[in-house]
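Table S2 (continued). Query chain:
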Amino acid sequence: MVKIEKQILHHCLAQAKCYIKSGERDKSRDYADMGIAYTASRKENGMLGNDLVEGVAINLWLERFWMFLQNNGLLL
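Corresponding output:
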């Protein structure tokens, strides 16, 4: 079994969670937005919603970041 290397998206989500816990809402939102932007750029470059990035489907990454923003009251 190949181990999936955690890269940009895992880092963005982890940082967003860390900053929300420490009360830094703007930084948390920034990291979630970076994750959404990176994921959207993959789709713009021809990847499909069920294609995997870091072992997770692109659509699931988008859902994770949007739900994080919504659940933490970070939507603008």
